[in-house]
Amino acid sequence: MGKRITQQARGKGSLTFKVRPRAYKHKITFPPIHVQGKGKITKLFHSAGHSAPLVEVKIEDIKFIVPAAEGIFEGQEIYIGRREENQEPQAGDILKLNEIEKGTKIFNIESVPGNGGKLFRSAGISAMVFDKREKVEVQVRRRKLRLHENCRAVIGSVAGDGRLIKPLVKAGKRHHQMKAVGRKWHRTSAVKVNAVDHPFGSGRGKRIKSKIAKRNSPPGKKVGHIRPSRTGKK
Q: Which residues, at least 6 apart from 120, have a Cβ–Cβ distance to it below 8 Å?
């Protein structure tokens, strides 16, 4: 008799696969779209559920939390919208994509105007405004996204760059790191297990098994490519 595959165990929602609520303790968002002017960074703090430090910004009676930009500090003033007298935007400022010059580094970008920043929030990451036509083109490495011109973003790059450079050294440190993530550790690849425990199990005989799951497969069989339109290299 086999055992439940990982996908089935995750779906059951046992303690092994329980997502810890640390990431939901602090909600990352922007102020309402109509709010503009000078804000102040009231707090710079660490969150166990995020790789980057977070900042709390206050403008008028509104407080909101965003990932910290590289080089900012507590008590610093930032602008939501354009600065006075058309001054150059500084790290930490929040602007619409159509107000940002080409080649500017940005992060915490909205995918839909007003949804509060969903893209590029990990420590050390940033994207770049690449082109502005009907939609604004944002580039990160070799990937390009086309977004609405009224989507907002933070100027600069996310603080905390280099966190992956320092080696973990001990397995125990990785254990505690993975505790903050709702994911089982270690992960055993499917082909390593017995044939009775997974559809891809047992690599004997070099008889390659299909990685495309049948459309009407039960949960224990529906693994690999799920309804792929195509596979392989173009």
A: 106, 107, 108, 109, 126, 127, 140, 158
pTM over 0.90: no
Q: Quickly name the fold that domain 26-155 has.
A: SH3 type barrels. (2.30.30)
- Closest Cα to residue 160, out of 119, 124, 125? 124
pLDDT tens-digit series, residues 86-124:
788 889 899 999 888 888 999 999 999 989 899 999 999
What are the structure tokens assigned to 65, written together? 């939390």
What residue type is assigned to position 9 of the chain? A
CATH superfamily for domain 1-19+182-234: Ribosomal protein L2, domain 3 (4.10.950.10)
C-alpha 81/C-alpha 66 separation (Å) is: 15
End-to-end CA distance of the chain: 40
